[in-house]
What does this fold into?
Amino acid sequence: MKKLIKNGTIVTAADVYHADVLIEDGKIAAIGEHVSPHDAEIIDAKGCYVFPGGIDPHTHLDMPFGGTVTKDDFQSGTIAAAFGGTTTVIDFCLTNKGEPLAKAIETWHNKAKGKAVIDYGFHLMISEINDDVLSELPKVIEEEGITSFKVFMAYKNVFQADDGTLYRTLSAAKQLGALVMVHAENGDVIDYLTKQALAEGHTEPIYHALTRPPELEGEATGRACQLTQLADSQLYVVHVSCAQAVEKIAEARNKGLNVWGETCPQYLVLDQSYLEKPNFEGAKYVWSPPLREKWHQEVLWNALKNGQLQTLGSDQCSFDFKGQKELGRDDFTKIPNGGPIIEDRLSILFSEGVKKGRITLNQFVDITSTRIAKLFGLFPKKGTIAVGSDADLVIFDPNVERVISAETHHMAVDYNPFEGMKVAGEPISVLSRGEFVVRDKVFVGKPGYGQYLKREKYGKYTVLNENKKLTI
Ligand code: URP
Ligand code: ZN
Ligand code: ZN
It folds into this structure.
């Protein structure tokens, strides 16, 4: 049946205007003031914004990590995402050295199949480059539609790849039309500082932050930018947490390099002091890169505002406090890194960003959806409200207030890092390809409804002009 969203205010990355949206066969069929078919179900969006569904470019669902497995899988994770206004996730498919990429991708398909309630795609981790990997990459892009690769510059002896691997991945990505994503921290120096701290008897969560100083994120970010320049390729730096990394990204972009940056809600509103909470509660706030001193937050907000950083990912990587974070009670290096953020990504950016005048409404949509769709080969199917686009829509009431709490969130974990935080604005109903996933704040979706997204190659909406100046 057709659906007509009436009386809402449509917000895209470019416009804010009153119009009705007609949905037919899962797509946006018409937008206008006098769209009134007699056979459509009417959905009243009075007083609400109608946003394109959020796209989360950075999730780790059902991922083995730190001696355990993330608590949210593709079912609980995507349900929570939908409650938060996200209608697409791009998850990281891990690979193992010596194992065919196809096997890793199949494993990830099996994790998602029958579970996801919204659409999803995969990025592919590159842990080594050899003839086997190089021969598989064209298939990964052409047949699987996986057009972004991830290289870890940290997590020594676990995920970390060396600079040669990063450079060769950048070169291959340029040839094949893929975007290379990096976790930019200097893993070798962190490994040394960590061992030194433990040898001195420092086992508490705060030492996770103290052994990963922002200089090491800045250094790795700068190194990745230099290698991108050398390979004449393209780079997306995930979870940027500090001024030092922003500076390197801005410097590269000013040179005309094709470098993009993502930050995450936790770095915008939480700070390093949280790791010092008593009774081991600091473990709830262990991320890599770590939370930083508070002054970095304003640098990140300014970078989002002036376009030096372009996107917001959740880096959803959730572990229970009890039984999982607790693995590191006697040794901070054993605390599984990451947190539950997928549900509150949009709320925090809207409340702390738009409501507080740090970014505009259009920027909010660009940062959480449109730019991500453009960078990761999903635009204009996803990421905007336009005739022909998928009807992935969020009806968002900007005036309600709610308090974030583990008591009410939909993630499968036993704590929320933003517990007690008041946020303005809330998704009321969320549609994926024209079907309600959340209706009037109640889940009405179906596990298995979410479709796998084959993505287009990098570059269609991110073209450099002749002077190598960025044009979007
Ligand atoms: O602490 C984090 N960020 N955990 C998830 C894995 C990663 O590095 O992105
Ligand atoms: Zn990372
Ligand atoms: Zn991550």
